[in-house]
Design a protein that fits this description.
Order of helices and strands: EHEHHEHEHEH
CATH superfamily: Flavodoxin domain
Distance between the termini: 6 Å
Largest sheet: 5 strands, parallel
Structural class: alpha/beta
CATH topology: Rossmann fold
Radius of gyration: 16 Å
Strand content: 15-25%
Number of strands: 5
Number of helices: 6
Length: about 190
Amino acid sequence: MSKPRILVFSGSLRADSYNQKIAAIAATGAKEAGADVTLVSLRDYPMPLFDQDLEAASGLTERALKLKALLLSHDGLIIASPEYNSSVTAALKNAIDWVSRASAPGEAPVSAFRGKSAVILAASPGGYGGLRGLVHLRSILGNIGVTVLPDQLAFTKVHEAFTPEDQLADEGQHSAVKELGAKLARHLAKLLA
């Protein structure tokens, strides 16, 4: 039986992103549950706004190809997405748009996503905790062939939630985030058995 491979990232580009912090906690839960985990930051994969004319002239950008290769080599995704104006961030949507494109002759679109499983979560200083953005993220991922597990988390007042060590001060919240990552790892382990 092979270990499930899970790619983890947030939809934020901010250096001190709350969502990247909760993504890292979920990654720990997945790793403790037996998965091989790769934690990345979208900051490391800057891409121009998706433009079909640019794609036609130059193909996928180098960073889009690198991110796509990572997705292709993993079985599942943990995505922590901040909410911008009641939806996902432009950075996250742009990354999905680039990576969903075919990059080789005969390759089907969305091949980097199709057949993957994912869990999603969000953190926000606001009162909804990013929940409205998760509705859109779930829809986007489902439409490109990702099975998004029903469990999700959204944390409010996150600017008050972290210890200086980037852990959630509330032990129940911390455990819930780790458990979400662990659920994905166990789900994927069953699929790969």
